[in-house]
UniProtKB/TrEMBL annotation:
<dbReference type="InterPro" id="IPR038898">
    <property type="entry name" value="BROX"/>
</dbReference>
<dbReference type="InterPro" id="IPR038499">
    <property type="entry name" value="BRO1_sf"/>
</dbReference>
<dbReference type="InterPro" id="IPR004328">
    <property type="entry name" value="BRO1_dom"/>
</dbReference>
<feature type="domain" description="BRO1">
    <location>
        <begin position="90"/>
        <end position="377"/>
    </location>
</feature>
<comment type="similarity">
    <text>Belongs to the BROX family.</text>
</comment>
<dbReference type="Pfam" id="PF03097">
    <property type="entry name" value="BRO1"/>
</dbReference>
<protein>
    <recommendedName>
        <fullName>BRO1 domain-containing protein BROX</fullName>
    </recommendedName>
</protein>
């Protein structure tokens, strides 16, 4: 099953030379500055390289972040921060608010912003892989793993690094808690989409698929709620996607719940559940059109023409027709006009998996360890 995910653009940044004349004391210090410059350039280059894979990204991120840690943490493993933390100014744009950059003279700001882009890269990699026509089991696992890593990075930045910033985060910008929460929950929801597709492929019980779909819809609703107080000019398109996926997976849940009821000879209730699925699918169709017409960050596509969307429409229609036929010829159950919401409970919980270089605060390159005083103020 192919998937379609909304993606915001990557953050852009100004070049950083890491030239500290009068501060860098000797060749070892100059080598560290040179390595910082080249490893940063290499990491930025990989963000837009379609041939880049998770191993390449991990190695490049580890290389840069381990060097950058020398600008953040004291080299003697004490709780004090590095004297070099505020020596360099860094500029980064925002994924939602376009090309207006934010600037801070703080290495922690650089760590957070670059880490944010690494997480976005993992989501984009997962999206490219999941969009293939015939995705293999190993590729599906890679999609799931990449989304878990992205969620872990976003979560770790929010909880461990952003609180350390001296300059408060601007409202509505990438590093604000509301946006990071939306990214975390969206990654969880999209990872579970892969689980649902796998469960359908392996012909698991409809009750399990319904529960997973219902939980996924709740994830999307939670992500949408996190963005509800943002300026619509920046968040409208993203929120259309989240609302669309919420309606889509609610329709999925009621469709498979209807199959469960039909298997239990509760044909009247099954028909009512399928009618509810039909209603939510119709809402999703409207939102597909609105998504394509809404201006804002993200791709310009028509989700209603995507395979993942069309397949559910056919499934809902065919299952409802089957229920109505069987009820007319065999069961003759009354179909209630009042729908009683079914009790569906989530069947799994995704635990975000972070990026090692971001999760290990003491991670430093050997060059720093053997040259603790080569950069002095």
């Amino acid at each position: 099953m192919t998937h379609w995910f909304h993606r915001n653009p990557l953050k852009a940044t100004a070049p950083v030379a890491f030239n500290y004349y009068g501060v860098a004391a000797g060749p070892p210090a100059s080598k560290i500055c040179s390595d910082l410059r080249s490893s940063r350039a290499r990491l930025l280059e990989l963000f837009t390289d379609l041939s880049c894979n998770p191993e390449m990204m991990k190695n490049a991120a580890d290389s840069y972040f381990s060097l950058l840690q020398g600008f953040i943490n004291s080299l003697d493993e004490s709780t004090q921060e590095s004297k070099l933390r505020y020596i360099q100014n860094f500029k980064w744009t925002d994924t939602l608010q376009g090309q207006v950059p934010s600037a801070q003279q703080d290495a922690v700001f650089e760590l957070i912003s670059m880490g944010f882009n690494v997480a976005l890269w993992y989501t984009k990699y997962a999206s490219r892989l999941a969009g293939k026509e015939n995705i293999t089991e190993d590729e599906a696992k890679e999609v799931h793993r990449s989304l878990k890593i992205a969620a872990g990075i976003f979560k770790h930045l929010k909880e461990s690094h952003i609180p350390k910033l001296i300059t408060p985060v601007e409202k509505g910008r990438d590093l604000e808690a509301r946006l990071l929460e939306a990214y975390v929950v969206q990654c969880q929801a999209e990872a579970q989409e892969v689980t649902i597709a796998r469960a359908i492929e392996l012909k698991h019980a409809p009750g399990l698929i319904a529960a997973l779909a219902y939980e996924t819809a709740n994830f999307y609703q939670k992500a949408d709620h996190a963005l509800s107080s943002l300026e619509p000019a920046y968040s409208a398109k993203w929120r259309k996607y989240l609302h669309l996926k919420m309606c889509f997976y609610t329709a999925y849940a009621y469709c498979y719940h209807g199959q469960t009821l039909l298997a239990s000879d509760k044909c009247g209730e099954a028909i009512r559940s399928l009618q509810e699925a039909e209603k939510f699918y119709a809402k999703a169709e409207v939102l597909c059109k609105e998504y394509g017409e809404t201006k804002g960050p993200g791709p310009t596509v028509r989700p209603s023409g995507h395979l993942f969307f069309r397949k559910l429409g056919n499934l809902v229609t065919n299952t409802l027709e089957k229920c109505q036929r069987e009820n007319g010829f065999i069961f003759l159950f009354f179909v209630s006009l009042v729908f009683l919401p079914c009790e569906l409970y989530g069947a799994s919980l995704l635990h975000p998996r972070g990026h090692p270089a971001l999760l290990t605060a003491t991670c430093k390159a050997e060059k720093w360890v053997f040259c603790p005083s080569c950069l002095v103020l």
